[in-house]
Design a protein that fits this description.
heterodimer, A: mainly alpha, ABC transporter involved in vitamin B12 uptake, BtuC, B: alpha/beta, Rossmann fold, six-stranded mixed sheet, four-stranded antiparallel sheet, 10 strands, 37% helix, globular
Chain lengths: 326, 239
């Protein structure tokens, strides 16, 4: 009596390999679009991990922003290698996440109230950064320009479109396999149990506080990791863009559309949502009506949620299974 | 195994449990009985850590557990079930039992084996992959029991596991509890069905208005005038 608890890893592995193989043949438009897809897939994986433990994050921009700022400030002002600065940003984000989870868990802040807590922390830190001159305040923080002729991307972790395409693909794929493994582990079970009934879970020996802190720490760490690389790609950071509330909302669309609780759903969701956003933008510009892009985007997302309430990916899995005799 | 000493639990002005003391010896089955509102479930909630006692203490194998969080008490081997069953509805029967099994191992396949054995024990092995939310009430009660067993308790607290079940189903649970006892398990149960209490319990503790009214062997309790007066009623036929 042995059964696969989680999908076998090789289909996802093949998927990421094929996407990697596309890199060299894509033009710069597609490279940057797919890089954004990977970025949102990573954020979705991160957000979804917390959601699987029943913790709704509406402040993910905080984790992303902390990772981005830590990495940028350490490399630019501290002269530290990005190979160390990015992990530092990851750790800072994870610590911030642990603290929020601990506060929420310790004082039994659950459900919607916890979501409000995440907003409160994210906004607090954003306003703090707005007024913190060391990191540039509202004026923003800028990385030194790099000379493309002498730049060694593997040293500076900054480069052209193809470099960031592979960099984001690599961390997103790694995050996917990590989350997939975690969800199939004891912790994955504990997170799901807590999200359904925390008191019943605790009665069965599930350490609720520790489980939540771990979930948020890993989730925040992944967001910080993505944020760190994102900062290096952008070259400039502003609290009102890197830590804005809207960003916290944007990152949760892909995992919801892709399928809550399913790691590959987050990846698929990003592949659907990000190009849709781009397509709507282009269409909006062509027609010349202000707001058309948001309207199209909104209608499509609404339609997906109305007709595929469990998300795109679980429906695809169901379809494939029913098409194939068991 | 379990010592409850001068346990008191007050909610604002209302004292739900007042100065209750009793013991459960190793490998014993003790039934906690009493009318509705007597404080039985409150007693369970304090013993299992869901509530902190106002006064008094609870010891498990000589170690004070009163006031510890429920998950720590569960890890020490005291596992409870809920009167109103609380399955994780979007998880399968096997996965529900695995949550319990993960209290004793971090290994997924070991947890799966333990979980499967415990659901087989209550007769749910053919529904291992069914979502717990789709089970019938009797099956949910069985799952509640299986999940607790999978957590590897030394002392099992069962809160009306048989309420709402047919005779055949409750007989099945009686058999399961007997076999658990034969394997060395200690059980404290809240039960309203006197037939079950008489058949199963080594000792009975009667609560009334939050206080201990009587304690003794089932036959003594059945004959105790105070218990008959306040709880059993004069017409109750025992066993």
């Amino acid at each position: 009596m042995k059964r696969a608890l989680s999908p076998r890893p090789w289909p996802a592995f093949v998927f990421f390999l094929v996407v990697a193989g596309l890199g060299p043949v894509l033009d710069s438009f597609w490279l940057s679009l797919l890089t954004l897809v990977f970025f949102y897939a990573l954020m979705g994986l991160s957000w979804n991990l917390m959601m699987s433990a029943g913790l709704l994050s509406l402040g993910h921009a905080l984790f992303l922003g902390l990772g981005a700022y830590t990495t940028a400030v350490l490399t630019a002002s501290g002269g530290i290698s990005p190979w160390l600065a990015i992990p530092a940003g990851t750790v800072i984000s994870a610590l911030a996440g642990s603290m929020i989870a601990w506060v929420g868990g310790r004082f039994s802040v659950r459900g919607v109230q916890f979501a409000v807590l995440t907003i409160a922390f994210a906004e607090l830190v954003r306003v703090l950064f707005d007024n913190w001159n060391f990191v540039g305040g509202t004026g923003g923080f800028f990385l030194k320009a790099i000379n493309p002729d002498t730049n060694r991307p593997l040293l500076t972790l900054r480069g052209g479109a193809l470099f960031f395409y592979f960099a984001f693909l690599a961390i997103t794929a790694a995050a996917y396999f990590l989350v997939q493994r975690l969800m199939a582990s004891r912790w994955g079970f504990r997170w799901r149990a807590i999200s359904e009934d925390e008191d019943a879970a605790r009665a069965l020996g599930v350490p609720a506080l520790r489980s939540k802190v771990l979930a948020v720490a890993i989730s925040a760490g992944l967001a910080g990791l993505g944020g760190g690389l994102f900062g290096l790609m952008q070259g400039s950071l502003f609290p009102d863009s890197t830590m804005r509330l809207q960003l916290s909302i944007e990152v949760l669309i892909a995992p919801i559309v892709g399928g809550l609780g399913s790691p590959f759903g987050s990846v698929m969701g990003a592949f659907f949502v990000v190009p849709l956003m781009e397509f709507a933008n282009v269409l909006g510009q062509r027609t010349g009506y202000y707001g058309v892009n948001t309207l199209i985007y909104g209608i499509v997302i609404l339609a997906v949620i109305a007709f595929l309430p469990h998300g795109i990916w679980p429906r695809v899995v169901q379809f494939v299974r029913s098409a194939r005799p068991a | 195994m379990l010592q409850v000493r001068a346990l008191t639990k007050a909610f604002r002005g209302l004292t739900a449990v007042r100065d209750v003391s009793f013991d459960v010896a190793d490998n014993e089955i003790v039934a906690l009985i009493g009318p509705n509102g007597a404080g039985k479930t409150t007693c369970f909630n304090v013993i299992s850590g869901a509530l902190k006692p106002t006064a008094g203490t609870v010891m498990l194998s000589g170690e004070i557990v009163a006031g510890l969080p429920p998950e720590q008490i569960a890890m020490k081997g005291l596992v409870r079930t809920f009167q109103i069953v609380r399955p994780m509805r979007t998880m399968t029967v096997l996965e529900n039992a695995m949550i319990g099994a993960f209290a004793r191992t971090a290994d997924v396949s070991k947890a799966m084996d333990t979980a499967f054995r415990s659901i087989a024990r209550v007769g749910l092995q053919n529904k291992a992959d069914a979502l717990a939310g789709n089970l019938t009430l009797p099956d949910r009660k069985m799952l509640e029991l299986a999940r607790a067993i999978a957590a590897g308790p030394r002392l099992l607290l069962l809160d009306e596991v048989m309420a709402g079940l047919r005779t055949a189903e409750s007989d099945r649970i009686v058999d399961i509890i007997r076999s658990l006892k034969a394997e060395g398990m200690t059980v404290l149960l809240i039960e309203h069905i006197m037939r079950v209490v008489m058949a199963l319990a080594d000792r009975v503790v009667v609560l009334h208005h939050g206080e201990k009214l009587a304690e003794g062997k089932p036959s003594e309790i059945g004959a105790d005038p105070k218990v008959i007066e306040s709880y059993l009623g004069k017409r109750t036929k025992l066993a």
